[in-house]
Amino acid sequence: MTSGEQLAADEAAIDVPAPPRPVVDVDTAGYWAAAGRGEFVLCRCTDCRHWLQPPMERCRHCGGDTAFEPATGTGSVHSFIVVRHPSVPAFARLLPYAIVLVDLAEGVRMTGRFLGEPADVRLGLPVTVGFERLPRAEQSAVVFAAAGPGT
User: Fold this and answer.
1) Is 118 within the bounds of a domain?
2) Whole-prediction pTM
3) How many domains, in total, are found in the chain?
4) E-assigned strands of the chain?
5) Is the Cβ–Cβ distance between 96 and 82 less than 8 Å?
6) Which residues constitute the domain of residue 79?
7) Do the domain assignments include residue 60?
8) 151 falls within a domain
9) What share of the chain is helix, strand, coil (3-state, %, to 5)?
């Protein structure tokens, strides 16, 4: 990209509305802090070792304390939808796009936007986690991409 193209892209980004901000609370602060560093973590019970999604301060299985631990970032598509209408203004320029519900290797499910063509999404598609920060966003968000061979 030339400097002129970059300048035009930067100026265009100014007109893009900010995406919705995540709600950061005592249960999710560790997750969002890691996401800001580009690290994928999930909440896990320090006693019974169950993975918990969404994050919780106490384990719903045994009541134990929880902490955020690195996770594999791999999984497969359990379900998906294709968004074709701009219900969220910050995502209008991305239309159409797919939102996937992913069965993670850790045994929990998580949603995110699929990076790639919606036509490429299918049930069972192996995916990997990534992070994306949209223009004017305050936080990086989880996205999923089709896994390459051997992942």
Assistant:
1) yes
2) 0.84
3) 1
4) 41-45, 51-52, 66-70, 74-83, 97-104, 109-115, 126-132, 141-146
5) yes
6) 3-146
7) yes
8) no
9) 20, 35, 45
